[in-house]
Amino acid sequence: MADPRRDPGSGAPETCGLEQILEALKLLLSPGGSGSSSLQIPKRDVLLATLKSNLSALEDKFLKEPHWKKLKLLREDVASEAGWPQSSADVTWSFTAQALLLLLCLKETMLRLAAGFNPRKADPRTPEAAPALSPDTLSISQQKTVQSVLQFVVTLGVCPYLMPGVGVPLRCRTEFGAVVQDVVCLDAAPDATRRLYASCRVLLNVAQHAALGSLIFCRHFGDIAAGLCQLGFCPTKRKPLNSEEEVITEEERAVSRKALRDVLDQVYQPLAVRELLFLQGGPPQSSTDMKTPVRCRAPAWLRRLCGQLLSERLMRPSGVQAVVRGILEGAGAGAAGGSDAEATAADWKKCDLIAKILASCPQQSLSPEDYYRDICPQILDLFHFQDKLTARQFQRVATTTFITMSRERPELAAKYLLRPVLAPLCRCLSTAEIPESDVVPGTILVTEEELSRCVEDIFKVYVVGNEPVAVLVDSLIPVLGVFFSLYCFTKQSVSHLRSLCQETLLWILGKLERKKAITSLKGFAGLDKSVPTLHSLCQFRAATQGGIVITIKEAICDEDEALYQKVSSEQCQVEHLGDLLSLCQESGLAGDFFIFCLKELTHVAAESEAELKTQPFSSNSLLELERHQTLLVEGQEQKLLVLQLVAVLCERMSEQIFTNIAQVVEFVVATLQRACASVAHRTESAVESQTLSMSMGLVAVMLGGAVQLKSSDFAVLKQLLPLLEKVSLAYPDPVIQELAADLRITISTHGAFSTEAVSVAAQSALSKKDPEGKIEEPQQNSRERYTGVSHGHLSQQQSLEKPNQTGLESSAPLGPQEGSEPSTTTSQTARSITTEQLQEVLLSAYDPQIPTRAAALRTLSRWIEQREARALEVQEKLLKIFLENLEHEDTFVYLSAIQGVALLTDVYPEKILLGLLAQYDGSKDKHTPETRMKVGEVLMRIVRALGDMVSKYREPLIHTFLRGARDPDSAHRASSLSNLGELCQRLDFLLGSVVHEVTACLIAVAKTDHEVQVRRAAIHVIVLLLRGLSQKATEVLRDVLKDLYHLLKHVVRLEPDDVAKLHAQLALEELDEIMRNFLFPPQKLEKKIVVLP
Hints:
Helix content is 65%, strand content 1%. The protein is mainly alpha-helical. Among the domains are: 347-569, no CATH class; 593-610 and 627-765, no CATH class; 908-1079, Leucine-rich Repeat Variant. The longest helix is centred in the middle third of the chain and has 31 residues, at 622-652.
C-alpha cells in the first residue's frame, strides 16, 4: 500500500535539516491568536480560525524566508509524487494534507541522513566512550512534536471518516474530539473514503522508518487498523456503474487488506490482540444517563473480521501467549506483570474467559484435533514462566484452560495435554519398555528439569485447579505408583518436591472412589502387584542442582546385598505410607485401609493353617518345583508385609482413625472373624484374647451412651450378631462368651435391655480408676432400671452430675423410643466424698511432711473446683487452713494455698474478698511483707478468674491498690501496681470515673519513686491498660491520653533504667497502633442496608 522508499541519491533535491522540518511542524501546531481567547466565540470557530491562521503562516514562511527554500523544494517534490488530493474547501483536510506532506519530508530526510552516516571506528584508547549517534535520531522534545502532529493527523484525517461502530467515536473520547467531529465538512471534496485512504496510506509510508513507526503504532495502531478494516473489508452498497463513480478501486481495497495483515504481523502481538478485541466490541450497551453517549455496536462484518483475525493471531507461533497477554494487559495488569498483576491473577472471571476462548476450536482450523495439536504445547508453556507475577497470571490461565479442555474434549485433552505432562513418569513405569540402548547403568531416563517440571505441572493442574474431572483422575492413576516412590525418596533427604508430591497424593486419594483409593494404597504397600510401580531397572538419584533424576541402576551381584536393599526399601515405603495415611484420618480413608489390613491379617491366619494341613508338593518336573517354591516365597513375603503394615499403622494412627460407626463396626467384624478363625484352628493366644476384649468393649462403649445411636446405626450394628453368636458359643473364655451374648441381646433390642457385663466392659475400655466403682455403679443402674423410676426424676439427677462425668458412667443403654435421652442415671452418693475422707484430708493439711501437706491442699482445691458439697460446707475452716499455709516457707505448699484461696474466693467472692483486701492493706505489724505479697498474688488470680464480674468489686479493689501504691515497702508498692494493671485491663469503660486518680498515681510513681522496680511496675500498668482497652482507649482515656503520652516520652528520654525504657517504648507502640487505627480505620468492603419503614 505504501510507496517504496526512494533512492536518496537519484536526483533528489538537497537535503534540508531535521530542525527546519520540525520548526514547520511546530508552526502548524501553534495556538491561535488573541481572538481565540474570547469566551464569546464558539470553539468550532476558534478551531477553524486557528487552522487557517497556521496554514497561512506556513505558506508565508515558504514564500518570504530564503532558508526555507530547501524544505519548500522537498515538499513540492514529495507532493508531486503523492497520488492523493492535497487541497480542499474543507480547512481540516487542507491542514491534514500539509501535516502529512511534512511527515513524508521528515521521513525522507531521516532516511538520507542515515544513508550518509559513516560512524568512526571506536578509539581503543577510550573504549568506554559512547558511540556517535546517528544523525536521524530525534531528541525527546522533537519526539513530542512528532507525536502531537500524529495526534492531529489521526484526529482530523482518520477518526472523522470511520463508520458508526468502527472504532471509538470522537464524541466519546474528549471534548476536543466532539468539536472536531462538528468542524469536519464531509460534503466537500475529496470524498471521506478517499481522505481516509490517503491518511492511512501516508501514515503507513511514514511508519516504514523504525523510529517514526514506533511513535505511530504505539498510540494510533487501533485507529489505523480500524481504517484499514473499513477500507478493505466494508461491503459496498451497490456496484458502481463506471469508474468515475467508484470512490475506491478494488485494487486499492486489496492493497488495504494486504496492508492490514502486514501491519498485524509486524506490531507487538498482544497489542494487536487487544486492539482487535476492542474493535470487535461487546454486546449492545444501554445507558440511563442522557449525558453519556452510547457507543454503537460494531457492524456484523467487522465482528466476523475481528474474530477471523484473532483466530489467526491465536494459530500463529506463540499465539496463545499473545492472546493471554493481550487480554490480561488490556485488563490493567501491565506488560509482563505490573502493579496490578496480582489482582488480575486473582480474577477468576478473566481466566475463565480466556480458557473458553482457548478451548473453542476456531472455524479456520481444519479439525479440533489439528487445533489441539497446535495449541496444547503452547498452553503447557504457560506453566513455565520464571517471573513471579507473570507466572501467577499465566499459570492460573493455563490451569483453567487445562481443566476446561479436559471437561469439553476429554479424549483430545488426554492425548495432547495429559500425555505430555505425565510422559516423564510413564517412561519409567514397570509396564513400560525401555529401549535397549538406554539399558546401561547410569543412563539418565528422566532429567532433573523434566522431573521437576512434571511434578510442578501436576501440582498446578490437580491441586491448584482442584477440579476432579474424570479424565484428569483416570490419567493420573497409572503413574501413582511411581509418584509414591518419588515421594518416598524425597522423604529421605531435603527436597523441594516433597510438599508437592505429598499434596498431590493427598488430593488424588481424597478425590478417588474409595475402592480405587484402597487399590492404590495396596499398590503403594506392595500388596497388589497389578498396580504399576517404578521399573525394576530404574532408581531415583539426587541431582547436581538440588533436584532428582531417574537413572538405570547398576546390577547387584551379591544376593545378600540385593535382599537387604529390597527389604529396607519395602520397610521405608511402608513407614512413609503410614505417615501419608496419618494425614488422611479425617476423610476416613485411613480407617478403611486399616480395616482392610485387619481383614488381610485374618486371611493370613487362615492361609497359614491351611498350609500346615496341605500335603507336600510332589512333582517330577524341576521347573514346576521351582515355580511352586517361588509362589511359596512370594506368599510369605505378602504375609510379612501385611504384619509389618498393621504394625506401622497401629503405631502411626491416632485414636481418631475411625470417623463413623460403620468403620468401627467393620473393625470389630474383622476382629471377631479373626477370633472365630483362631477358635476353628485352635490357635488362640493371649494377644488375640486381649484384642477381642478391647473390640467388644468398644461396642459396649457405643451401646453405653458414649455415642448417640440412631436406628440406622443399629442396622449397621446388626452385622455383628452372627459373629457374636459364634463367639458366645465357641470361644473358650467364659467372660468373653458372656459378654458376647449380652452384646448380642443389647443390639437386638436396640439398647432396651442391657446387662451389668456390658457396663463393666465399657468402663474397662475407658480405663476407669478403680474396679469397685466400676462394678458398684452398674449395679445401681440395674436396680434403678427395674424399679420404674420416672423420667422426670432421672433428668433432675442428670443435671446434678459433674460436667466431666462421661455418658457411660451416668447412663444406661439407649432405648428404642428415646434415641437420645438416657434412661437411668448414677446416684450422686457414689461419687461424693465421705465425711471420713474430708476429715482425713483436713488433718493432712497440718502434716509436718511437706509432700503430704501439699497433696492435701491440692486435694482440697480440687474438691472446691468440683463443687463438692461436703467440702463447701466447711468453707470457713478451709479458708483458715489456706491462709495459715500461706505463711509456710516452702514454695510448693504456699503456692497450693494460694490456688486454694483463689478457688474458694471464686465460689464465695462476697464473703472472702473483702477480708483478703483488709489483710493485704494491713500494716507490717499485723502481717509480714512476704504474706502480704502472697495475698497480692491471690488477689491477682481472683481478678483474672472473675473476668467481667470484677466490675462489681471495682471500688474496694481500686482503693486498696491505690493505697498500696503509697506503702513504705517498695515490694508492696510494685505488687499493688501490678494488680492495678490487671484490674484496669478488665474494667474497660467502667474505669472512666476513676481514670484521673489512676493516671495521677502512675505519673507520680513513674517520675518520683526512688525504687527501679516500682517505676517499672508503673510503666507496665500503662502497657496493660492500653493493651486491654485497645481501640476503646480513645474513648475511655480521652481526658488523660495526652498526659500518659507525655509521661511515656519523659520516661524514654530521662529514665536511667533500660527495662523501664523498654516498657515505655512498648506502651508507645501500643498507643501508636491505637491512634493509627483511629485516624485511618481499615477499609471494610461491606454495604449497609437500611430498611425504611
